[in-house]
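Write out the 3D structure for:
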Amino acid sequence: MTNEEKIEIESHFRQDEFPGVIGVIVGTHIEIDKTQGDSDSYLNRKNFFSIQAQVVCDHKRKIRDIFVGYPGSVHDSRVFRTSPLFGTLRGKMWKPLYYWRQWLPWFTILPNSISR
């Protein structure tokens, strides 16, 4: 994402009273058939087999980042902490990651990381 895109996205979120935001993150489950091997790992809390997907999109609902593959039994916060996105944001966030954890796994608003 270019700095120009980040500025455009942030201005749209700002109009909706979310200043400094350039993306929205959500975790979801993709239903799968029961696996041959370690099927218990894929059984999620809603009692169906799944893999985890973490998706980040912009103000136009365009997917900007996706991380898929953890078994359904894994908590959303662990998926986030082990995602490449977490590593990228760790050095750029103006608030510590524990501050944002209060919204995980349900819905997190990511801070703006425009390079200055």
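The chain has one domain: 22-110.
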